[in-house]
Amino acid sequence: MRSFRLVLVCQDQQAIIARVSRWIADQGGNIVNSDQHSTDPFGGTFFLRTVFVVEKNLNQAQVQERFRGFMAAMGWEGAFWRLVAEDEPKRMAILASKQAHCLLDLLWRIRSQELSAVVPCVISNHPDHEQIVESLGFSYHYVLATPQNKPEAEARIQEILEKNQVDLVVLARYMQILSPEFSERYAGHMINIHHSFLPAFKGANPYSRAKERGVKLVGATAHYVTADLDEGPIIEQDTIRVTHRDSIDDLRRKGADIERLVLGRAVRWHLEDRVLLDGSRTVVFA
Amino acid sequence: MRSFRLVLVCQDQQAIIARVSRWIADQGGNIVNSDQHSTDPFGGTFFLRTVFVVEKNLNQAQVQERFRGFMAAMGWEGAFWRLVAEDEPKRMAILASKQAHCLLDLLWRIRSQELSAVVPCVISNHPDHEQIVESLGFSYHYVLATPQNKPEAEARIQEILEKNQVDLVVLARYMQILSPEFSERYAGHMINIHHSFLPAFKGANPYSRAKERGVKLVGATAHYVTADLDEGPIIEQDTIRVTHRDSIDDLRRKGADIERLVLGRAVRWHLEDRVLLDGSRTVVFA
Amino acid sequence: MRSFRLVLVCQDQQAIIARVSRWIADQGGNIVNSDQHSTDPFGGTFFLRTVFVVEKNLNQAQVQERFRGFMAAMGWEGAFWRLVAEDEPKRMAILASKQAHCLLDLLWRIRSQELSAVVPCVISNHPDHEQIVESLGFSYHYVLATPQNKPEAEARIQEILEKNQVDLVVLARYMQILSPEFSERYAGHMINIHHSFLPAFKGANPYSRAKERGVKLVGATAHYVTADLDEGPIIEQDTIRVTHRDSIDDLRRKGADIERLVLGRAVRWHLEDRVLLDGSRTVVFA
Amino acid sequence: MRSFRLVLVCQDQQAIIARVSRWIADQGGNIVNSDQHSTDPFGGTFFLRTVFVVEKNLNQAQVQERFRGFMAAMGWEGAFWRLVAEDEPKRMAILASKQAHCLLDLLWRIRSQELSAVVPCVISNHPDHEQIVESLGFSYHYVLATPQNKPEAEARIQEILEKNQVDLVVLARYMQILSPEFSERYAGHMINIHHSFLPAFKGANPYSRAKERGVKLVGATAHYVTADLDEGPIIEQDTIRVTHRDSIDDLRRKGADIERLVLGRAVRWHLEDRVLLDGSRTVVFA
User: Fold this and answer.
1) Could you tell me which CATH class the domain C2-85 is placed in?
2) CB atoms < 10 A from the CB of D42, how many?
3) What is the distance of C-alpha C285 from the center of its chain?
4) Fold held by B90-284
5) Annotated catalytic residue C230
6) In this predicted model, what pLDDT tens digit does every residue of D119-164 receive, in sequence order?
7) Annotated catalytic sites of D, by residue?
8) pTM of the model
9) Residues of C with CB below 8 A from B100's CB?
10) Contact B38 A33 (CB under 8 A)
């Protein structure tokens, strides 16, 4: 018995669920859980995520082949879909800069098997975390990145990502701005954690600006990276209370806890194909 | 075009979703949204809530009749189901005692059409709220209730409820303990708000005991009423931060805000058939 | 025995607390609670709020006179201070437009004595709420306000406020933009509730824009009104979780609950002199 | 210039603040921040925490000696007080069992200088975490603990604690029940994290019981350890939302994030002398 995960995004129309669930039943499959969403039942976009188990020993390629045939028969070739075996984890790279709290948090979630992913490489523009990352059993790549060497640095990073066949790139407080080309190459496959409740405090130094404005909560936002800085589709956000007593350093400290939680949830949901793109927004089947 | 809401609880088995969604498609129906949950895909309990629209002009009795035939054909007669037109609101009674914050909050949500229900009667063991309730346009019944006259009081309340054909009874800080018989008569149709985070501080005076214990959060719990006091299936809970500075009265004040929100959400979800019983627990398709 | 409340804002320097608390002891006073904050102990701004009781029968004017003498003796004449008897409630006006949830929430908090204030007048640019406001026992003034008659409308509102000797003006979803002159007249004495987590979604239609941006939380902000729209000192904020399922109307509904809580807390704190201005920010001794 | 921290607990009476703040001024000290609380201004208990800087070069022993003289002169010898230099960190031991999330979280907070403490020893009844703890630069002691060898195990633990001159013992998911004698020896100096919102789900397996009861939030509680299991004074609590979808393992995973945050805050506050005992409760100057 093996578990598969299907995600499907297409134009909404009659009997989609009936047909897909019939197809699953026809494979001898049993639906374990299923979520759907429609932006408008009459001609809007339909989003489906279904986990099903099949008794017989089918591999991923066979199930994909059959589903491709089904989609063609339905005339739904334009739709977006992904069908994967649940026991084949994604390959995830983590990029970090000087601050390591998000990086270490993710690595510990991987080690404790809370996140189901393979992390073949950690990349940083600072050499500082090499020892701790390697002692946790992960491979560390130091890639110097400056405003001057951006093309070379990005080429080097891309080389590492490709060599390691990475499915997902996580910017765990990676403080270098990536080129639009790089961002677009990993569109929908690169998650950033921004240390504010977007759209408040886009750009640099959000905690200083939060202190300056006198807000009573600070927050964090995990989003897909797009060429348009801090404007990508939001996956998850959360906030924490602060007071007039908190200095900028206190905001950083309190915010760091929220960054870790928010990024951990967003990465988990992405790894489990729970996040579907709806234009500049997301549908999250959490 | 009319919108219907189907809830179904049965033993999980292959192809339930395929069959039900096929049936909906066969009625010319289009699923607007749908939620399902299974406690175990192999022989556990399956929960479904589906909202669908049908183009042709079918009334509730006709759709129910057809679905009854479908269930019989499937051999699923033992299952629990409910199928209602979305534009037929439930009839809700509210019982309250001296404190009116939950009562008034619900009435205002009704008036502002945030909650879709008809409230034919408000019942209280205190005469105090008559003027404000009537000025809001609702009918007020004062029923004296003491430990001595419990049977008579409950008989009178039941009479009012039956005369008004009530589907849902909400105990909005009604401080009389109801008899097991009364509780069982409205099992699954009577919601209470308890002013603590259950199972902490079951029973009387939860805020005093919260102060005594020195907790750092107080909470509220909306649950279905059962014969076993404060042990009924929980629908919704929430908490709010308190400190050593807060007196018992401060806990009451802060707690009252949470009670209102928690009860408002629980009532809303019940009115929209989003709450399904799973033994002593609930499945909430919020 | 009578309870007084002192707030003091001055340049920080040695022995302020020692001197002020000595002065209180010299009046036979006993400090009930006290909060202080300093932006920088060496030359920053010092904020103090102290509640003390005096045994003898002193009235507010006498205590103020003595404290004025103390301040003069200290050479702190430039400092800001307020000293009031705790049993003399502020006079509060509420302005509202079409949506009444914040207005009614405040009126209920007044009626239930959760907020200690006298509300001599409710003013609205819509006639709709007259009956319910008056049935709650408050006086209702309908003042038509349009972009065209702004000067006349503001003059009429000001007349009502002055006639009623109002200390605090609460804009409880009052949707007219006030003139800079009007805003400045009530600087530090006029609280607005904005239906977003500022500085996100300043200006009009925050819920529509929140939906458009795809945020995962919506929020509300209570702030003092300044001539610069939505830029005034923030008193309180909070957020609530939303999902891709929530329509703009759902955001409005969920947000309305947060607006009520946030505004209720901000008004309470202001009425109890817990909010002190620190330039464009606030110190809140909650 | 050096910063000192004074905490004082005594019977409330007139002019305490005046006298203490005068004493600080007399040392040439300047109060940086100060919190006080009284359970009742007429004969209740008074709690004070004051941070002050003195210009001249006084060491901790000298300042303590002077304050002892002041207390004697005041006739307040029965009061509890502590006066420490802020730059002398406490010495903290961490005990853990099989699950390492709380242990590692604390060690990272130490390493990143978010918590100001020296951690001379980590003790565990499992050998598993030795490598990672040592790679982080801390000393690891494996002490086998079974129901059978409890006295020997506790004796060995105590030996390690004493040899390392430990001020604070943190039970970071240490799953052995300590003897009343051991608990009393570290009364007020030993913090436990319990994986439920106390007083709900005292004792073993709180997540299983939370699932069984069908609660909609799970929580965590940091408290001082007393001989009476899970009944010690609560320092901090928090909760996180769960749904019918969450398995017991999901509750554990979600709860683990809250445990880390709650324990991290409680330890921080204790290290900074922000937590004062008020009988079976705490006053937390957070």
Assistant:
1) alpha beta
2) 12
3) 13
4) Rossmann fold (3.40.50)
5) yes
6) 999 999 999 999 999 999 999 999 999 889 999 999 999 999 999 9
7) 230
8) 0.97
9) 112
10) yes
